[in-house]
Amino acid sequence: MNILSNANAVVRDHFIIRKVEVIKPFFWLIRGWQDILRHPSISLAYGVMISAMGVMILIFASNHIYLIAAAISGFLLVGPFLSIGLLELSRQQEHGKTLNFDDSLAVLTSKITPLRHFAVTLLVISIFWFIASGLVFFVMYEDIIPSFKNSLWGGFLDMITPQQVALYLMIGGILAGIVFVLSAVSISAIIDSQITALDAMLLSIKVVLTNFPIMVVWASLIVVLTIIAFSSYLLGMIIIYPLLGHATWHAYRDLVEIKK
């Protein structure tokens, strides 16, 4: 309780949480797109990296449907951290600075401790998701889990009940929601201030609770764009990932102010 009380005091004493209009998430995307146009080669390089990584993971996971959980876990862990460079590009753009790709990652060195602690939190959630997915699939099949190919083309939905699908989606949705709440502004706050990982996560929770309807809209936009990216065989991820990364910075700037 002492740790949480101290973290709460840090957030209260050093940050102001603003309330914004429900339409703001759409403006975050517009500003994110403008940042892509300012740094097209670097921004799209991040998109290509995450897209290529996703393709490799899905090719590996396609041999067994259970491994899809591992693929999702990988994105859950790696995704927010690959966006650090995009956040830094947007942050430095506000100061009129032009960065190259290496410069965009320099913040990893200066903020290594809080970022490492935040990574551990996401790693724990990812491991829990992987284990939970395995348990759900075990309950579904009570035997050897079929390959992804057989499940997809052999009537996957005929093999399981709607309740089992709902259970899997519910668990995944809850964990994805937790990650969103913890990371909505956390990484941006870490690279923009001297905040610790715990303080950053508490700040993120407070931001989401203060602007709950707006953050529901923002989370929904992220889900829709992510679905579009995956439905295009991850080609759309080349643009959508940097778009969301840059937009996340602008969300932070609208939602949080550092006290002078």
Which key phrases capture this entry?
single chain, 260 residues, mainly alpha, 15 helices, 2% strand
How would you explain this protein's 3D organization?
80% of the residues lie in helices and 2% in strands. With 260 residues, the protein is mainly α. Helix 3 (40-61) packs across helix 15 and helix 4 (67-82) runs antiparallel to helix 8.
Short description:
By secondary structure, the chain is an all-alpha fold. The protein has 15 helices and 2 strands. Helix 12 packs across helix 13 and helix 14 packs antiparallel against helix 15.
Strand order of the largest sheet: 1-2
| Individual helix count | 15
Low-confidence stretches: 148-155
Question: Which range best describes the helical content: under 10%, 10-25%, 25-40%, 40-55%, 55-70% or over 70%?
Answer: over 70%
| Strand percentage | under 5%
What global shape is seen?
globular
Indicate the structural class.
Answer: mainly alpha
Largest sheet: 2 strands, antiparallel
